[in-house]
Amino acid sequence: VKQGKSSRIFEVNIQVAVRIRPLLPKELLRHHCECVKVIPGSAQVTVNPDRLFTFDHAFGPSASQDEVYRACIQPMVRSLLDGYNATVFCYGETGSGKTYTISINEIDVATVHMSYLELYMEEVRDLLDLPTNQKGLNVRDDINGNTGN
Ligand SMILES: Nc1ncnc2c1ncn2[C@@H]1O[C@H](COP(=O)(O)OP(=O)(O)OP(=O)(O)O)[C@@H](O)[C@H]1O
């Protein structure tokens, strides 16, 4: 991992956070139970229960949007306003809480160009472009190595 240019903000360029959402009412009704747990005060999670995984951040079901935002996103927003590029990428199975988590926004002092893409089953969809978002986008490289669709 490369050292971040803006060492004031980042020690590394890429950080990985895991968030475990609370069980939904329908899951509680079906007596589902949590099989992934955060070790309190750490960035580690246990799975079932003897496998241990370490991340840069780990949030359990009681973590608020604010807590996730402050730890993971706010430093990126500051860095963005300093002129650096930043990407927040949510990965997880259907219903795991990607949309819920990514819907955190707090920039009201600048014009922001944002794209909202979904990568699912190797198809890319532009979620902000209703006419095309039913069919996948074709991603191509041109002769100069630029990527477009
Ligand atoms: N941290 C959370 N606290 C409370 N509810 C949550 C949390 N995360 C997700 N949920 C709820 O769980 C459900 C699924 O979340 P969400 O739609 O964000 O999943 P997703 O990963 O975007 O799913 P998909 O890939 O199918 O679009 C929603 O009802 C959402 O409100």
Automatic annotation (TrEMBL):
It comes from the Eukaryota. The keyword ATP-binding applies. One of its GO terms (cellular component) is microtubule associated complex. ATP binds at G92, E93, T94, G95, S96, G97, K98, T99. Keywords: ATP-binding, Cytoplasm, Cytoskeleton, Motor protein, Nucleotide-binding. Its main location: cytoplasm. It comes from Takifugu rubripes. Signal peptide: none annotated. Belongs to the TRAFAC class myosin-kinesin ATPase superfamily. Kinesin family. One of its GO terms (molecular function) is microtubule motor activity. GO terms for biological process: microtubule-based movement; mitotic spindle organization; spindle elongation. The keyword Transcription regulation does not apply. This is Kinesin motor domain-containing protein. It holds the Pfam family Kinesin. PANTHER family: CHROMOSOME-ASSOCIATED KINESIN KIF4A-RELATED, KINESIN MOTOR DOMAIN-CONTAINING PROTEIN. InterPro entries: Kinesin-like_fam (IPR027640), Kinesin_motor_dom (IPR001752), Kinesin_motor_dom_sf (IPR036961), P-loop_NTPase (IPR027417). It is found in: Cytoplasm, Cytoskeleton.
